[in-house]
Design goal:
It is a single chain. The chain contains two helices and four strands. With 66 residues, it is α+β, with helices and mostly antiparallel strands. It has a single domain, classed as Alpha-Beta Plaits, CATH 3.30.70. The strands form two sheets. A two-stranded antiparallel ribbon has the order 1-4. 18% of the residues are buried. Bound molecules: iron/sulfur cluster. The site of iron/sulfur cluster has 14 residues, from helix 1.
Length: 66
């Protein structure tokens, strides 16, 4: 069932550490330059706690759950 929770990325703030993709592999991938890609679709299942942990860990505060 959709959660209504989405992960958003501030591309300007992001500095490409890539930590987020390691912490939330079910909802964040890296592009060819090592920058994260998020789908913007509603998160489900284990993607929700993964995304929450990744957002908390992001040193640039570039990830937000809304
Ligand atoms: S952890 Fe934050 S700053 Fe690093 S790549 Fe992910 S979104 Fe960007």
């Amino acid at each position: 069932m959709p959660s209504g929770t989405r992960l958003t990325l501030d591309r300007i703030a992001c500095n490409g550490h890539g930590i987020c993709a390691l912490m939330a592999p079910s909802c964040i991938t890296l592009d060819r330059w090592g920058y994260p890609v998020v789908s913007g679709e509603e998160l489900e299942g284990k993607a929700i706690p993964e995304a929450r942990r990744a957002a908390r860990a992001c040193p640039a505060k570039a990830l937000k759950l809304c």
